[in-house]
């Protein structure tokens, strides 16, 4: 789906966590981390347990040079992945945290 499709979904359902999250991913892929962060913020506001949104917001913050915020978000994503039993994503996020700290 394109950003326009997510915009349309959000006009119909302004609480669509999936639309905010996926539009954030689309913005990030288009190298627009500021817009991505805004959408990840909205997705997290709607669903505080959305580990992927924390992880991707952390990556977007890292691309902007905000290492401190990036690590905080990646650590929150790792905690949520662990709580949710998602071992693979937990381990991947732990690896990312180590890379960001270097």
TrEMBL record:
GO terms for biological process: receptor-mediated virion attachment to host cell. GO terms for cellular component: cell outer membrane. Keywords: Repeat, TPR repeat. Coiled coil: none annotated. Pfam families: TPR_1, TPR_8. TPR repeats lie at residues 17-50. Signal peptide: none annotated. SMART domains: TPR (SM00028). InterPro entries: TPR-like_helical_dom_sf, TPR_rpt, Ycf3. This is Tetratricopeptide repeat protein. It comes from Cylindrospermum stagnale PCC 7417.
């Amino acid at each position: 789906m394109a950003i326009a499709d997510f915009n349309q979904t959000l006009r119909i359902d302004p609480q669509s966590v999936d639309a905010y999250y996926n539009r954030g991913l689309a913005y990030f892929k288009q190298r627009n981390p500021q817009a991505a962060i805004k959408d990840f913020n909205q997705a997290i506001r709607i669903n505080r347990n959305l580990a992927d949104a924390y992880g991707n917001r952390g990556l977007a913050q890292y691309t902007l040079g905000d290492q401190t915020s990036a690590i905080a978000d990646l650590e929150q994503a790792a905690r949520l992945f662990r709580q949710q039993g998602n071992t693979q994503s937990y381990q991947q996020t732990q690896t990312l945290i180590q890379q960001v700290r270097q």
